[in-house]
Automatic annotation (TrEMBL):
Record bears the keyword DNA-binding: no
Native source organism of the sequence: Streptococcus cuniculi
Regions crossing the membrane: 24-44, 56-77, 104-124, 184-199, 205-224, 236-255, 349-371, 378-397, 403-422
Domain of life: Bacteria
Keyword presence, Cell cycle: no
Keywords: Membrane, Transmembrane, Transmembrane helix
NCBIfam families: glyco_rpt_poly
The protein, known as: Oligosaccharide repeat unit polymerase
Length: 437
């Protein structure tokens, strides 16, 4: 059955790429998530004693087709132009100012990092063993369900937002304005972000930034290689393969820093493929009897309402799912507590959840992609690259409806503020200085 799942995923991916010639359409990213997870399950059939049920195949294929149909609905009703509609504002000299490194954002990042380090290491036992300190931070995060103080959370979002803007400026200079100026400031900001991500012990921050960088890079790369789509995509794939290997290596190292004992293949396999297989085990061994009707899928949003006093709607339960642990016939110790994005849909509405929620996601992300294609080098590109990660995570965790909370507003808000600064304020001040001369 694993081969059927791979076959369907590859066929749909091939159809979408043949029609649109894009590597970052929602369908492509969504299907690649299934191809990766299914491939990992195929490689680990003996180690995990993989047995896929008919129910799993029906539910999973339904989710894939529902998402795909959702994107097709937008394609059908949205009258698309064959070429990009480029805003006039993206053609003027303001791009040169936008691409220039910002000293203000650089110093904000430095100051934010200093305060973050002081606050995050407060209350733990200091040691020369960096891994020991990170383990204490990780255990503290688990104890508090992954939450920190408001100030610490905002410092993380500020540092991440500045790194996002810096990478956008770097690509704008590299592919569009090509000023030849030093990009050292951008690199320092990104290194500061990576250090913060390591200290936070939250590897999801790293993965989401990597997805953002890849998507934004492909947007710039393909926009500047029009008319050479075949060769451009071949070069993209070659470079992308290198960056994926690099990102996976960094991801593994970050895990080792906080004391994980798993070897490389075990760590990557369990993180990338166990979510989909755990969903199979969940359907076989403990399918829901009493549906929650949205309490699980919309847990985060309902939590916000709970803070406003509507506590009756808040789902009572642990943020983290239970572990599945067993020893296979080969002696492999299987241990994982991720169940893909599909488990909460099933918990809330059973099979109907496989129809409605992926369909809604298909509608949303295809609409977002359509908006992105209507401009170049604008905030829409940043927003799309920032918000597309739930599709890459689909076979790991639910990260779309689960992000309906104030934290997401803060994340997007800080990025919007810093983008507004480099796009409006800096351009305005530069024009005022030129007029004064």
């Amino acid at each position: 059955m694993i081969y059927l799942l791979l076959l369907v995923s590859f066929v749909l991916l091939g159809i979408d790429f043949y029609k649109w010639r894009s590597l970052i359409r929602p369908n492509i990213i969504f299907l690649l998530s299934f191809i990766l997870a299914s491939s990992i399950m195929m490689v680990n059939q003996k180690n995990w004693d993989v047995v896929l049920s008919n129910r799993f195949m029906i539910y999973t294929l339904t989710a894939i087709l529902s998402f795909y149909i959702g994107t097709l609905v937008i394609d059908y009703f949205n009258v698309r132009k064959k070429s990009l509609v480029i805003s006039e504002s993206s053609k003027d000299g303001s791009l040169f100012i936008m691409a220039s490194p910002s000293k203000l954002l650089f110093w904000i990042a430095i100051i934010a990092m200093i305060f973050y380090v002081l606050l995050i290491f407060r209350g733990i036992q200091l040691s020369t063993d960096f891994s020991f300190m990170l383990r204490q931070i990780y255990d503290r995060n688990v104890e508090h369900s992954g939450s920190n103080t408001f100030i610490v959370n905002q410092l993380v979002k500020i540092l991440t937002a500045i790194a996002n803007i810096s990478f956008f400026q770097f690509l704008l200079d590299k592919y569009v304005v090509k000023t030849g100026k030093s990009q050292l400031t951008h690199f320092v900001v990104i290194i500061i972000f990576l250090l913060m991500a390591a200290i936070s012990t939250d590897r999801n921050i790293l993965l989401r930034f990597f997805i953002y960088c890849v998507v934004l890079w492909i947007l710039f790369f393909t926009a500047t290689n029009k008319g050479k789509i075949t060769r451009a995509h071949f070069r993209l794939l070659a470079k992308l393969a290198f960056y994926v290997v690099l990102a996976v290596g960094i991801f593994y190292i970050f895990g080792k820093l906080k004391g994980y004992k798993s070897d490389f293949s075990r760590a990557i396999s369990l993180y990338g493929g166990s979510g989909l297989y755990n969903f199979n085990l969940y359907l076989n061994e403990s399918p829901p009897i009493d549906y929650k009707f949205g309490l699980v899928t919309f847990r985060s949003f309902l939590g916000v309402l709970g803070r406003l006093g509507i506590e009756s709607l808040v789902h009572k339960g642990s943020v983290f799912s239970e572990f599945i642990i067993y020893t296979s016939k080969t002696g492999f110790v299987y241990e994982s507590n991720i169940y893909s994005a599909m488990r909460p849909f099933v918990e809330d509405f059973g099979y109907f959840g496989m129809v409605i929620f992926p369909f809604i996601m298909g509608l949303f992300f295809e609409t977002l992609y359509s908006w992105t294609r209507k401009s170049q080098y604008m905030f829409s590109w940043i927003f799309y690259a920032l918000t597309i990660y739930p599709l890459a995570y689909f076979t790991i965790l639910e990260q779309f409806f689960n992000r309906f909370h104030l934290g997401s507003l803060y994340e997007i808000g800080w990025v919007a503020i810093f983008y507004w600064y480099i796009r409006r304020i800096r351009v305005y001040l530069k024009e005022e200085i030129n007029e004064g001369k």
